[in-house]
Design a protein that fits this description.
Elements: E1 4-11, E2 20-27, E3 30-35, E4 44-47, E5 52-55, E6 57-62, H1 75-84, E7 87-92, H2 103-116, E8 120-125, H3 139-145, E9 149-151, H4 160-173, E10 177-179, H5 184-187, E11 192-193, H6 196-201, E12 205-206, H7 209-225, E13 229-231, H8 237-248, E14 253-257, H9 259-263, H10 285-297, E15 302-303, H11 312-315, H12 332-341, H13 348-363, E16 378-388, E17 407-417, E18 420-424, E19 427-428
The structure holds zinc ion.
Length: 430
């Protein structure tokens, strides 16, 4: 293999030394050289004129559905969808069947990913056995098997004593806990955000407090134990305020939001659109504004997709019984570029920090930077391309997107993952 040579890119690289116009030489899975001009020497040349090169995006929260739900997604299809979205590393949540609460499931996912994956896959293990919120999973064994973090995502750890113990053990094992913040008592069977639209549509509401009290609990427990915690998919103004105040007190909390929480509101549920059913639910304009402000001031460190593909059969049903989730890999960058960069909330440099550098730092992995000798994880985007999202063309098995038909700006063109060209001109080529 002679490697790849990217010519004439504009390099945006918040954590790297090299920025600006330049060429990138890839050889043997690593970046061999970055310089203003590199002569080709038999490599495959990618002409990146008019394109912007970013470190490969890092998604710290997705669902690949394997093992157990291969009709929704597999590691093969999910990682190809991730690559098409510009992601070169993804951390997959453990709510599979069986759940990733034993080392053998972690080992299975890593083996499958090595054999069939298009991008790097880092499995997240369970906090509790079978995600039942009662007994702790074997954290040390999960860590030893290769779990990058632990979470019961999809389910909250409702019992505060269990979470308190989990944080103590996680501290001693040096592993990150990611909390899905949802108080089941406050959710009380609700299916969408409480407000104007839930009233109009006659759907059972979920108070924002269901998320916020759990965010408050996690920050207080982390403070009391002087340990880290990461909050998944923050969606409300109040949750942003709780995290901001905890950070100001020096609590070791980090947090993520997802593109749908700054790109859509509960008005998307109008017409009982089950593709807009997600957990936590889509909120209001005020929450969207608060999430954007929290991304800008650093209260929210990361943007994760919460890619949650579903089969049509789980969505083509009544709203009350439809599955929660949005197929998010293939729209994340465009939605973020359109709603954050084009609108002046973030610079592209800041967006890359939240979609690549910070997720890598929170997970404690390499990546999120373009540097000589570093992983050849590179995405090339066209900042000027406008297009309409077409869910039917997703590589993911999940076509469930409330953004089908939405006009966006900024498109992923090429993705190089671990030195391999995975996506060329928007098409998956591996
Ligand atoms: Zn979740």
């Amino acid at each position: 293999m002679n490697g790849l040579l990217i010519k004439n890119a504009l390099i945006v690289n918040p954590k790297g030394k090299y920025k600006g116009a330049g060429d990138i030489l890839v050889r043997g899975g690593v970046i061999a050289r970055i310089a203003p001009s590199i002569e080709s020497n038999g490599e495959t040349v990618i002409d990146a004129s008019g394109l912007t090169a970013l470190p490969g995006l890092v998604d710290m929260h997705c669902h690949l559905r394997e093992p157990g739900f291969e009709y929704k997604e597999t590691i093969a299809t999910g990682t190809r969808a991730a690559a098409r979205g510009g992601f070169t590393t993804v951390a997959c949540m453990p709510n599979t069947d069986p759940p990733a609460d034993t080392p053998s499931v972690i080992t299975f996912i890593r083996k499958k990913a090595a054999e069939e994956g298009a991008v790097r896959v880092l499995p997240v293990g369970c906090i509790t056995r079978e995600q039942k919120g009662k007994e702790l999973a074997e954290m040390g064994a999960l860590r030893a098997a290769g779990a990058v973090a632990l979470s019961d995502d999809g389910m909250p750890v409702a019992d505060s004593h269990v979470m308190h113990m989990a944080l103590r053990y996680a501290r001693s094992f040096g592993i990150l806990l990611i909390s899905h913040c949802e108080d089941p008592g406050l959710v009380n069977g609700g299916v969408m955000n409480e407000g104007y639209w839930s009233t109009l549509l006659g759907l059972k509401p979920i108070t924002r407090a269901a998320e916020e009290v759990m965010v408050a609990r996690e920050t207080l427990l982390a403070q009391a134990l002087d340990t880290r915690v990461h909050i998944a998919h923050v969606s409300t103004e109040g949750a942003c305020a709780v995290i901001r105040s905890a950070k100001a007190r020096g609590v070791k909390v980090t947090a993520e939001t997802c593109p749908h929480y700054f790109s859509a509101t509960d008005a998307f549920v109008d017409g009982f659109d089950t593709n807009a059913k997600v957990n936590p639910p889509l909120r209001t304009d005020a929450d969207v504004a608060a999430v954007k402000a929290a991304l800008k001031d650093g209260t929210l460190d990361c943007i994760a997709t919460d890619h949650a593909p579903h089969h049509i059969d789980q969505k083509a049903v009544e709203f009350d019984v439809a599955a929660n989730g949005i197929s998010g890999f293939e729209t994340a960058f465009s939605l973020a570029y359109t709603n954050l960069v084009k609108t002046g909330v973030l610079t592209l440099d800041q967006l890359v920090t939240r979609m690549a550098c910070n997720p890598a730092a929170v997970l404690g992995i390499d990546g999120g930077v373009l540097m000589e000798g570093g992983r050849a994880d590179i995405v090339l985007v066209n900042e000027n391309e406008n297009y309409a999202i077409d869910a039917s063309g997703f590589v993911s098995k999940g076509k469930n997107s409330p953004f089908d038909g939405t006009e966006v700006t900024g498109r992923v063109v090429h993705t190089i993952a671990g030195g391999r060209l995975a996506v060329e001109a928007g098409r998956v080529v591996i």
